[in-house]
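Hi support team,

I've been running sequence recovery on a batch of backbones for a student project. Most finish fine, but this one hangs at about 90% for roughly twenty minutes before it completes. I'm not sure whether the input is malformed or the queue is just slow. I've pasted the structure tokens below so you can try to reproduce it. Let me know if you need the job ID as well.

Thanks,
M.K.
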């Protein structure tokens, strides 16, 4: 559904040229020809990378220059930096500008930058594209990253419907499917299908390391099952520390359920209870197939 917005935003500013931010400027350039693209970064090196490839119309280290008279501002830095950036760029925002983000936690974002901007008379709607990679940096960005992805749009219910529809249209023109939900529901869902699985991948990788088995032997025998299961834990430990701690309220109950389930499996194995172990595996299979 396009909502009739053939070009929802004539200008877009992306603050943060990492994998997601870099992919976003590439996607906008490809899917919305004619839209002005501005890219902001603290450091010159990723901006130089973008300049050399013509990814943005303006590459700058000035927040004011990046956001002034722009209709959509996308925060693509770590979520912990949003409030600091917001206090610096808010004075340059147009009244009809929409601010969004691409972070994977939303309760803290709405309580922080979202609340701040609302008090200043500006509009914030959260975005979380369910797309990415364990690789980081603009050098790994690609324009098709959002094609076929789901983007959660998070609102507190007070946002203007036209603004929400324009943001939905923006993501859909990049090839994504956008769905609206409240921040609390978002955080509970991503805890279950993204954040705890990241912890499980890390646990799997850590568990494989044993003083009784040489690393070279593990490397020789590890096949796609192990490598696919643990791939996501190759992501940035610093980034994931921020994500996990920011969503700890939703993650901890989910993790407690997992720990109880692991204890149950341990008991079944110790008892060699084949019947109940098979039932447990069958339930896991049904759960996976119902979700994926």
């Amino acid at each position: 559904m396009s909502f009739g917005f053939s070009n929802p935003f004539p200008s877009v500013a992306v603050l943060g040229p990492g994998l997601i931010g870099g992919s976003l400027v590439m996607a906008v350039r490809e899917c919305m020809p004619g839209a002005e693209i501005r890219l902001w970064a603290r450091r010159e090196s990723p901006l130089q990378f973008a300049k050399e490839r013509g990814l943005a119309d303006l590459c700058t280290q000035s927040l004011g220059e990046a956001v002034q008279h722009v209709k959509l501002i996308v925060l693509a830095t770590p979520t912990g930096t949003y409030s600091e950036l917001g206090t610096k760029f808010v004075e340059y925002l147009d009244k009809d500008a929409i601010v969004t983000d691409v972070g994977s936690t939303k309760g803290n974002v709405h309580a922080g930058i979202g609340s701040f901007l609302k008090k200043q008379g500006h509009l914030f709607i959260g975005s979380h594209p369910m797309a990415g990679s364990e690789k980081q940096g603009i050098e790994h960005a690609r324009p098709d990253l959002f094609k076929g992805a789901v983007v959660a749009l998070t609102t507190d219910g007070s946002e203007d419907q036209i603004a929400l529809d324009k943001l939905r249209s923006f993501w859909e023109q990049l090839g994504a499917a956008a769905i609206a939900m409240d921040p609390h529901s978002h955080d509970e869902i991503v805890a279950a299908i993204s954040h705890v699985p990241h912890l499980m991948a890390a646990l799997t990788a850590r568990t494989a390391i044993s003083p009784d088995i040489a690393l070279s032997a593990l490397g020789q025998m590890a096949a796609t099952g192990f490598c696919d299961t643990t791939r996501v834990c190759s992501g940035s430990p610093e980034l994931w520390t921020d994500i996990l701690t920011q969503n700890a309220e939703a993650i901890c109950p989910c993790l407690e359920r997992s720990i109880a389930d692991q204890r149950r499996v341990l008991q079944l194995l110790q008892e060699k209870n084949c019947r109940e172990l098979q039932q447990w595996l069958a339930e896991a299979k049904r759960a996976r197939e119902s979700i994926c």
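--
Follow-up from support: It reproduced on our side and the slowdown came from queue contention, not your input. The chain is about 55% helix and 15% strand. No action needed from you.
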